[in-house]
């Protein structure tokens, strides 16, 4: 992964392939952002005019290249748009810096070294720029050029068109001897590495990332980072009565797994449980998906990938909070042993579920994992899942939904997501929708009213949360997998959605600001 360093060096004398500066959209045209003063001076203080001549406006995501001035040791200046210029005395928002750094880092694929002369007001800006560089430089090419690296390592080597990701990013204005700046960069590096690990997992083809293979990757990470891990295979799941996970995985030759990954801290007095949907491939089962809906279904384990990455990140950061991750892993395939519409499953909780649609499988595996997590009586449970197409219709492809059984906690999760730059929106759980899941045969059906289907799924999950336990549900169906072009620091393919939100929730809990 791209190496990051802090430097107080002046841009003109730094040996690099490029100098990255920020340009904002001002009232009368582009405005050179703080951090680029030395570059602007070298252009006789006319850099904004030069950029405007070249068509730059400062709009978010805009990128303009121009030759470096005489006397610079770098041959190239890259101006990247920051969006609207902030009001007087206001700072650039962290997300604007993060996105700008990501755009530049992606454009610098193949470069050995680049200096980022973006606005650095404080440690938060250092963290945002660092995250943007590391996330923007990401590329997944395991299956190109004879497979340069292994899946799930977070260390993609090759970039598109054969160019390696930017090798080194130097953050100008970051103070290498400042404890706050160093800590901010270290945290950004850890979070980005684990988020990129989640991206690698999401991008891995399902023939290689079976439930057993995912569990093996988790075992390797547990050994490396001192985590406790328990893996229940199909026999253990049958013995203990995990009817939901077994039912969903019953149609596949790749048998299901339930992975419990635990991080504990000696000084912790709070316990969070994260539960992730891990459908390593979703064909829809007997309720087969129509043509055109299968090609990206390797991403249906994005929730489990996010949970896995967040637990490892919490351990690497040494947060004084106990965090348990539950990965509900199964492959949903049609076969003679697959669960059928009309079948009744007895869940781990003892409750029975009539399966009306085998493509509503994520809620079944999550239900078992939620009940298992509840048995440990954590202070709060957060589940993450690419759960419903209905939520994509409601919120689009870049925003995830937040539901829960406690309004204050739902709001706290929403605020944490927005703080770290992950668009989210709180959604209700209307009681009248519960009636639609009544079954004449079982305790509950896995389907209800079509309208409000994402909320129905949330209501179903609530049935399997232990009494008195605070719980939130993140439906990341929209932002988990980017089928369009790359933007900001977000690549095409797996995005690592919700990793940063979960890590921030763990930090807030450790700091006593949550729960």
TrEMBL record:
Write out the GO cellular component annotations: cytoplasm
EC primary class: hydrolase
Residue ranges annotated for the Cytosol aminopeptidase domain, each copy included: 357-364
Active-site residues are: 289, 363
Q: Which Pfam families match?
A: Peptidase_M17, Peptidase_M17_N
For this chain, the family text in UniProt reads: Belongs to the peptidase M17 family.
Q: Which reaction does it catalyse?
A: Release of an N-terminal amino acid, Xaa-|-Yaa-, in which Xaa is preferably Leu, but may be other amino acids including Pro although not Arg or Lys, and Yaa may be Pro. Amino acid amides and methyl esters are also readily hydrolyzed, but rates on arylamides are exceedingly low; Release of an N-terminal amino acid, preferentially leucine, but not glutamic or aspartic acids
* EC numbers for this chain: 3.4.11.1, 3.4.11.10
Q: Which UniProt keywords apply?
A: Aminopeptidase, Cytoplasm, Hydrolase, Manganese, Metal-binding, Protease
Q: What is this protein called?
A: Probable cytosol aminopeptidase
List of residues binding Mn(2+) 1: 282, 359, 361
The protein's role, per its UniProt record: Presumably involved in the processing and regular turnover of intracellular proteins. Catalyzes the removal of unsubstituted N-terminal amino acids from various peptides.
Per the record, the GO terms for biological process are:
proteolysis
Q: Which residues bind Mn(2+) 2?
A: 277, 282, 300, 361
Q: Which domain of life is it from?
A: Bacteria
Q: Where in the cell is it found?
A: Cytoplasm
Recite the UniProt cofactor note for this protein: Binds 2 manganese ions per subunit.
Q: Which InterPro entries match?
A: Leucine_aapep/pepB, Macro_dom-like, Peptidase_M17_C, Peptidase_M17_leu_NH2_pept, Peptidase_M17_N
Report if keyword Cytoplasm is assigned. yes
Please give the SUPFAM superfamilies that the UniProt record associates with this protein. Macro domain-like, Zn-dependent exopeptidases
Q: Name one GO molecular function term.
A: manganese ion binding
Q: Which species is the source of this protein?
A: Streptomyces sp. R39
Instruction: Specify where it is mainly localized.
Output: cytoplasm
Q: Which cofactor does it need?
A: Mn(2+)
């Amino acid at each position: 992964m791209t190496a990051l360093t802090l430097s107080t060096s002046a841009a003109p004398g730094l040996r690099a392939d490029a100098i990255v500066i920020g340009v904002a959209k001002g009232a009368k045209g582009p405005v050179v952002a703080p951090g680029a003063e030395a570059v602007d001076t070298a252009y006789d203080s006319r850099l904004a005019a030069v950029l405007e001549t070249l068509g730059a406006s400062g709009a978010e995501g805009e990128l303009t290249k121009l030759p470096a001035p005489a006397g610079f040791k770098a041959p190239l200046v890259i101006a990247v748009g920051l969006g609207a210029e902030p009001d007087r005395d206001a700072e650039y928002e962290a997300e604007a810096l993060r996105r700008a750094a990501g755009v530049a880092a992606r454009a610098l694929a193949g470069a050995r070294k680049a200096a980022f002369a973006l606005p650095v007001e404080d440690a938060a800006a250092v963290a945002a720029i660092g995250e943007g560089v590391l996330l923007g430089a990401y590329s997944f090419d395991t299956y190109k050029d004879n497979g340069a690296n292994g899946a799930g390592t977070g260390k993609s080597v090759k970039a598109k068109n054969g160019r390696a990701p930017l090798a080194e990013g130097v953050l100008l204005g970051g103070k290498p001897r400042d404890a706050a700046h160093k800590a901010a960069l270290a945290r950004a590096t850890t979070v980005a590495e684990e988020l990129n690990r989640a991206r690698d997992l999401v991008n891995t083809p399902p023939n290689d990332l079976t439930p057993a293979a995912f569990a093996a990757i988790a075992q390797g990470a547990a050994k490396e980072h001192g985590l406790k891990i328990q893996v229940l295979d199909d026999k253990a799941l049958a013995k203990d009565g995990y009817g939901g996970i077994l039912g969903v995985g019953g149609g596949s030759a790749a048998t299901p797994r339930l992975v419990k990954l635990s991080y504990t801290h000696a000084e912790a007095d709070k316990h969070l449980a994260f539960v992730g949907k891990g459908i390593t491939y979703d064909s829809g089962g007997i309720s087969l998906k129509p043509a055109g809906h299968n090609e990206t279904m390797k991403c249906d384990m994005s929730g489990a990938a996010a949970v896995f990455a967040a637990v490892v990140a919490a351990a690497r950061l040494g947060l004084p909070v106990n965090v348990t991750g539950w990965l509900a892993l199964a492959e949903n395939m049609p076969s003679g042993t697959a669960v059928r519409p009309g079948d009744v499953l007895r869940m781990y909780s003892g409750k029975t579920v009539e399966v009306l649609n085998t493509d509503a499988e994520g809620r079944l595996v999550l239900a078992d994992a939620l009940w298992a997590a509840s048995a440990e009586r954590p202070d709060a449970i957060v589940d993450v899942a690419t759960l419903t197409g209905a939520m994509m219709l409601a919120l689009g492809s870049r925003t995830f939904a937040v539901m829960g059984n406690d309004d204050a906690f739902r709001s706290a999760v929403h605020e944490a997501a927005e703080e770290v730059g992950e668009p989210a929106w709180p959604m209700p759980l209307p009681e009248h929708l519960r009636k639609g899941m009544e079954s004449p045969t079982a305790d509950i059906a896995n389907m209800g009213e079509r309208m409000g289907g994402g909320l129905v799924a949330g209501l179903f999950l609530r049935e399997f949360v232990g009494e008195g336990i605070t719980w939130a549900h993140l439906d990341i169906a929209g932002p988990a997998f980017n089928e369009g072009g790359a933007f900001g620091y977000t690549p095409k393919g797996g995005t690592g959605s919700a990793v940063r939100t979960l890590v921030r929730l763990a930090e807030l809990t450790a700091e006593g600001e949550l729960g």
